[in-house]
Design a protein that fits this description.
Elements (H helix, E strand, L loop, with lengths): L1 H10 L2 H14 L16 H13 L5 E5 L7 H13 L3 E5 L3 H7 L2 E6 L2 E6 L2 H36 L5 H13 L25 E10 L18 E4 L11 E2 L4 E3 L3 E5 L6 H8 L7 E6 L5 E4 L12 H6 L6 H9 L17 H13 L5 E5 L7 H13 L3 E5 L3 H7 L2 E6 L2 E6 L2 H7 L46 H38 L2 H40 L1
Helix pairs in contact: 6-7, 15-16
């Protein structure tokens, strides 16, 4: 009996279970001491990691993961990527972490605007295929709309008269036509951050700096004359504490993009708070340079007033009417009654967008950002990346989003084991330099040969079904060469017509721009061109309609 139980225990991998438990909690960054703690004593992030560890150890055939990288630092995320790529199970994951999706996904499902679409490959392949698919939909929609417009023009012109029968036939074709829907537009933030004052060459410097999260609360930037140099330094009370992190003497030049990375609890947010003066250094000092104006984005959104509303958050301190505020907030996807929502009732994503809206109202030339991509969807992250890339000031940010870091950073500060190490370059460059082949993420421009990946082929087009018509006796047959020539002429004239329509649309836009700028001379010139192109368009439409009528007559004969 004992031997049977032992064999069953061994077959169930019982002897290796403890090893797998310790390997999993180490990979997810859970301290060994937490194995004996009650889960009720854990923080939200600790509970999330404990639940994830339990799931990974379950041996299930199907793993359903909803934002599994939330609350994981970079090392834990990379460990999870390795686990999921090697696990003998199907995995369905919801995630906004693009690096993670590139590492683990073999298929991608997108749910947007009530539609479900599937793509082959990881995130990078999905993004390429999606762009191609949307471009194709745009072309198909534009082509069909032009066809509908030309057909409706024919119907209006020949509704009565010798071609009335053709007009009725065209109307029936339109009625049966399967309409291509307009291309979808993804709701996306539209923001810009502009610095109004140029900072000095050195915006920030550390001198013999040591920091600790339990340091006394500082005065922030109170007492600083805007644009004038300023110093945060340790005091007698703070010097009694032991530093969590010792920092080397560092100078940050104007225009640098500094990414701060490291394990949870290493001191990254503490460093930002010391720079902002919210915490007093426990050793040394922080020098704020000449001309520096700082704006701060806090991870917990402490800069938002929980008693306020979305509207009051952007109007307080800014001369802005309700209409102007609504327009501005609309750029951050707050519409209708959303602008009157209480801050305390907002979701995490809404709080993030509101905090970014407040940040964009500043004229700062130094941005201090703590996990700015948290709670943002992929499209909002991409919008934020584009804005920050165009920002001509200095950015210091904490992030676990490796895609975001790779696209933005010029140097990386790694905080770990009580010290800060400075690396020049992007995330991929730093990881490659370490030769950490087993763990490092792939470079953004070299992901398993994705540039050679073929896109999803276009679906084959079904031939149009010929209309059933009675065949009169002794009906003549059209010459195929004549039909082909008529079709080529119709297509050529159709292209000419489409080009003139495009030229006229561009000209209309130029006229609108000149009207707004008050350029009267340019308006006269554009107006004359508009008359000429409009006449060319009218004549081209006449030629195309005649060519279409000829082609349809020949095709009608051929069909019989």
């Amino acid at each position: 009996r004992h031997s049977d139980v032992s064999l069953a225990f061994e077959a169930a991998d019982g002897y290796a279970y403890q090893h797998r438990v310790h390997e999993t909690i180490a990979g997810l960054g859970i301290p060994e001491a937490h194995l004996e703690r009650e889960v009720t004593t854990f923080s939200g992030g600790q509970r999330t990691r404990a639940a994830l560890a339990r799931l990974l150890l379950s041996g299930s055939d199907l793993l359903l993961l909803d934002e599994p990288t939330n609350h994981l630092d970079v090392d834990a995320t990379e460990w999870l990527e390795g686990f999921l790529t090697g696990v003998n199970a199907a995995v369905v994951v919801v995630s906004h972490d693009r690096y993670f999706l590139d590492a683990v996904a073999t298929r991608t499902w997108e749910i947007a605007d009530g539609n479900f679409e599937t793509y082959t490959g990881n995130y990078t392949q999905f993004a390429r295929q999606r762009a191609e698919r949307e471009a194709r939909k745009q072309r198909d929609f534009a082509t069909q709309q032009a066809h509908i417009a030309r057909t409706e023009a024919f119907i209006r012109r020949y509704r009565a008269g010798v071609k009335a029968r053709q007009a009725r036939g065209r109307q029936k074709q339109l009625d049966r036509l399967g309409r291509v829907g307009p291309p979808r537009t993804q709701g996306q933030m539209n923001l810009a951050i502009r610095a109004t004052l140029r900072a000095g060459d050195t915006v920030l410097a550390f001198e013999n700096l040591g920091i600790a999260p339990e340091a006394p609360v500082g005065n922030g930037l109170l007492g600083q004359t805007p644009g004038m140099p300023f110093v945060h330094e340790s005091n007698a009370q703070s010097r009694a504490l032991t530093p969590l992190v010792h920092l080397p003497d560092i100078e940050v030049a104007r225009g640098e993009r500094v990414a701060i990375v490291g394990p949870n609890g290493a001191g990254k947010t503490t460093l930002l708070r010391v720079i902002m003066g919210e915490l007093v250094p426990v050793r040394g000092r922080v020098h704020i340079g000449y001309g520096v104006q700082i704006a701060y984005y806090a991870q917990a959104h402490e800069q938002l007033d929980p008693k306020g509303t979305v509207m009051t958050e952007v109007t307080d301190g800014h001369a802005m009417s309700e209409t102007e505020a609504r327009t501005y907030l609309g750029r951050f996807l707050f519409t209708g009654d959303d602008v009157f929502k209480a801050v305390r009732a907002l979701s995490g994503g809404e709080r993030s967008r509101l905090a970014l809206a407040k940040l964009a109202l500043s004229t700062a030339n130094v941005l201090i950002l703590d996990e700015p991509t948290n709670h943002l969807d992929i499209y909002s992250r991409e919008a934020l990346e584009g804005v920050l890339d165009q920002f001509d000031g200095t950015i210091i940010f904490v992030s676990h989003d490796r895609f975001f870091i790779d696209g933005l950073s010029s140097q990386i500060w790694e905080v770990a084991d009580g010290k800060l190490t400075l690396h020049r370059g992007t995330w991929s460059e730093v990881r490659a330099a370490r030769h950490d082949v087993g763990k490092r993420p792939a470079k953004l421009d070299d992901r398993n040969g994705l540039e050679n990946t073929s896109s999803v082929p276009e679906p084959a087009r079904k031939p149009a079904q010929a209309q059933s018509r009675p065949t009169p006796a002794a009906r003549p047959t059209a010459n195929p060469r004549e039909v082909r020539a008529a079709r080529e002429r119709s297509e050529k004239l159709g292209r000419e017509l489409a080009k003139l329509e495009t030229d006229l649309q561009i000209l209309d836009q130029e006229i609108d721009a000149s009207s707004r700028s008050g350029d009267g001379v340019k308006l006269v010139e554009l107006g004359a061109r508009h008359v000429v192109i409009s006449e060319q368009l009218r004549a081209a439409e006449e030629r195309w309609l005649d060519a279409q009528a000829t082609l349809e007559a020949l095709e009608c004969v051929t069909a019989t």
